[in-house]
Amino acid sequence: MNHSAEKREMILEKASTLFSQKGYFGVGINEIVSACDIPKGSFYHYFPGGKNQLAVAVVHDAYDKMEMGIRKNIFSVSDNAVEVFCWMAECLARDIENGREGLKSLIITFMGIEATYISEELDEASKEVYRKWEVLYREKLMACGYDEMHADQYSKMLLTLIHGNLISCWISKDSTNLRNIKNLLPNLLPDEN
């Protein structure tokens, strides 16, 4: 990675952390510039559209990193959908228990919720990321043997079930609901093989 790409990545990471802690409206450009220890001109060099352009980039970057992690650490464990998504819930439960900051899926969610009030561009980026997320799950379900129609239905259910429980567990600081998914999934996700 060249210096320019490294600096842009650093700005994305710092902004992602700040946005996840304070929300879009709670973070100003001066705070981002200060956290990155860069001149304001450097910020605008990478993000001439300002904070809105940065927020769009943060949402896309968070999704890309989340997808890479899911493919490498979750989807690779099995070709059995129940095992895969139970493992996903288990990993997220561990993240909650370990107080892991910066869960990429939560950053996407928080930014997506605020996006409605910020800009059309950020709103569209958030919607696009959620569509890609469903496709990611659908493709894995199809690789596990589900036909396209069922994979489409189950991908939406899994995204809602797992991510909804993640939000609930994050707020309550209790991973029980995520851990309970392993008891629910065998009944909710019939074997297609």
TrEMBL record:
Organism equals Dielma fastidiosa
What's this protein's name? Answer: TetR family transcriptional regulator
Name the keywords, alphabetized: DNA-binding, Transcription, Transcription regulation
Keyword Transcription listed? The answer is: yes
User: Is Transcription regulation a UniProt keyword of this protein?
Assistant: yes
What GO MF terms are annotated? Answer: DNA binding
For this UniProt entry, which segments traverse the membrane?
A: none
Residue ranges of domain HTH tetR-type in the record? 5-65
The protein's matches in InterPro entries, at most eight in alphabetical order, are given as: Homeodomain-like_sf, HTH_TetR, Tet_transcr_reg_TetR-rel_C_sf, YxaF_TetR_C
- Which residues does UniProt assign to DNA binding? 28-47
Q: Name one Pfam family in it.
A: TetR_C_13_2
